[in-house]
Structure formats: C-alpha cells, structure tokens
Amino acid sequence: MKKTVLALGLAIALCMVTMAGAYAQAAAPAPEAKAPAAAAAKEINVTITGKIEVKTETKDGKEVKTVSVVVADAKGADGKEVASLKGKTLTVVGAKCADVEKVAGKDASIVGKMKEGSTELQAVSCIEKPVETPAAAPAAK
C-alpha cells in the first residue's frame, strides 16, 4: 500500500512539474517574435561626401585593410541633408570598396546604401571630388 501511494504521489508531482514548465514556456514570448522588429531597420540610399581613409591592421597574422569615410556632407535619396551622419566615420563595405580605396587620402563622393543607425556604408559608386583651385585673377590692362 505504501508503494502505491508513493508511486501515485510521484506521478502527480511529475504531472505538476510538466504542466508548470509548459505554462512557463507558453507565457514567455518567442524569440522569433523579436526578430522582425530588429530586421525592420530601414535601409536608406545616401550620397556621402568626405575624406577617404584606409587603415591596415594585423589580425590573426593577416593584414586587414579597413576603408572608411569621414562624413563632411550626407544627403538622402530625396536630396535632403542627413544631419545625423555629419562628422561620423563610416566603414565602406561591398564590391565597390576597392574603387573607394583608390582615392585614399582625398575627398570623394560615394553613393551607397546603409541601414539607419549603422556605421557601415554599402558603396555603389565612388567619384573623386576635383580639387578646387582659386579663381585666376583677371589680367591687368
């Protein structure tokens, strides 16, 4: 009789633990529910003008180049200024990174895409800005 009561008590305890675990799992939000909100970061098209910098670092015995642009001016696809990017350093990534690297140390205009709040710029094209020379003084007569 004691063994039957003990077995019945263990069976009830096991059922209660299982039900409590199932209830706790159902009450907790699913991790997938948060992913769409994070993935909803808006991608914007921008035109960045600034100075191109290339840094070479050694990581794990390999030299790694990092191409970046110090933003002097930033405009969205609508032509409006994106003031939040001004003065920031953005890391240039993507297939056109090599084109941007060619104008290192110079001012350039880069058209690309980036996610809001990100510091990575996916370059689409890069054009070196011409050096502005002072206007020549008119010849004296």
Q: How would you explain this protein's 3D organization?
A:
The protein is α+β, with helices and mostly antiparallel strands and 141 residues long. It has helices at 2-27, 31-39, 97-101; strands at residues 43-59, 62-76, 89-93, 107-115, 120-128. It is built from three helices and five strands; from the N terminus they run ααβββαββ. It is elongated and about 115 Å long. Strands 1-2-3-5-4 form a five-stranded mixed barrel.
Counting helices, strands and paired strands, the structural category is: alpha+beta
Let me know the average pLDDT: 81
- Portion in helices: 25-40%
The total beta strand count reads 5
Q: What overall form do the CA principal axes indicate?
A: elongated
Strand content: 35-45%
Q: State Rg.
A: 29 Å
Biggest sheet, open or closed, and with what strands and sense?
5 strands, mixed, barrel
What is the spatial order of strands in the main beta sheet?
1-2-3-5-4
Q: Please trace the helix and strand order, writing H or E for each element.
A: HHEEEHEE
Distance between the termini: 127 Å
Number of continuous helical runs = 3
Could you list the spans in which at least 5 consecutive residues all have pLDDT below 50?
none
